[in-house]
Amino acid sequence: MRETITSVANAKIKYFRSLKDKEARYKEGKLLAEGANIVRDLPEDVIVESIIVSQDKARQFSDILTRFEGTRTKVYEVSDKCMQQISDTTTPAGIVAVVAMPPDRRVSKEDVVVLDGISDPGNFGTIVRTCVACGITQILAVNCTDWTAGKVVRGSMGGVFSVNIVTVAGGDEAGALLADHNVYALDMGGENVYEAVIDKAKPFALVTGNEAHGVSQFFRQRADKILALPMKEGMESLNAAVATSIALYTFVFQK
């Protein structure tokens, strides 16, 4: 049975709104997934605590609501003012899911993308989306922006729910997790990525550095190879997400 909420002072609305804050997300173990396509495509193994839909969008999103009704997921129809409190977008999509964070997991002996200080949520989300498209199921995030933020979830088109994202605070911890991997770092001046030969006997770890400062000194020293995307003179670098996407497709094609 659906519950209708019209007051922004309602305790549930305050709880949903609090999940826009990082500290609250980790305290509650929940995050927000906003947008019809993202909510519609949530994997079956994702625990969905609640679905919040704008009253005037309930009929439009009836297929999504039908999926969750009759389950443990609670469905709330809310006023536009309530939805504006919950959403962190200028124009709310009209439907939001409250989703449980996946349990902590470690990096396995499979290919991995390493994000070394990625600070832009849009870049993080786009890289996650590319990983899912390429069949990469794990990401190691070292000193990065928080992947549970709404901008990352939306930028990944919900891809964060299809990969194992392991967060670590520094290079030493990351290095220990990559002991069984060949590490390839993307950096200007490296070997042409199209000409590099990938060692297929071991899983790869493809490292992308911070948007402003590039790959950290730790990964420069740890890398088995430094690779670069060839560019014409006058262009110093590519967007981090674009560079990662191109390199990752190159790696996957080789393997």
Give a verbal description of the structure:
Helix 7 (150-155) links the parallel strand 7 (138-142) and strand 8. This protein has helices at 11-18, 22-28, 36-40, 62-68, 80-86, 121-134, 150-155, 171-177, 217-222, 240-254, and strands spanning 3-5, 30-34, 48-54, 74-78, 95-100, 112-116, 138-142, 164-168, 182-192, 204-209, 225-228. Strands 8-7-6-10-9-11 form a six-stranded parallel sheet. A five-stranded mixed sheet has the order 1-4-3-5-2. It is of the alpha/beta class and 255 residues long. The protein is built from ten helices and eleven strands. The model has no long low-confidence stretch (mean pLDDT 94). It is elongated and about 60 Å long. Helix 1 (11-18) runs parallel beside helix 5 and helix 6 packs parallel to helix 10. Helix content is 32%, strand content 24%.
Question: TL;DR?
Answer:
This protein is an alpha/beta fold.
How are the secondary structure elements laid out?
Blueprint: E1 3-5, H1 11-18, H2 22-28, E2 30-34, H3 36-40, E3 48-54, H4 62-68, E4 74-78, H5 80-86, E5 95-100, E6 112-116, H6 121-134, E7 138-142, H7 150-155, E8 164-168, H8 171-177, E9 182-192, E10 204-209, H9 217-222, E11 225-228, H10 240-254
Parallel strand pairs: 1-4, 3-4, 6-7, 6-10, 7-8, 9-10, 9-11
Antiparallel strand pairs: 2-5, 3-5
Which of globular, elongated, flat, extended, rod-shaped describes the shape?
elongated
Distance between the termini: 50 Å
Q: Which strand order spans the largest sheet, edge to edge or round the barrel?
A: 8-7-6-10-9-11
Helix content: 25-40%
Strand content: 15-25%
- The radius of gyration computed from the alpha-carbon positions, rounded to a whole number of angstroms, is 20 Å
Show unreliable segments: none
Which structural class do you get from the secondary structure elements? alpha/beta
N-to-C SSE series?
A: EHHEHEHEHEEHEHEHEEHEH
The number of helices is 10
Mean pLDDT: 94
- The beta-strand count equals 11
What's the main sheet like?
6 strands, parallel
Assembly context of the chains: single chain
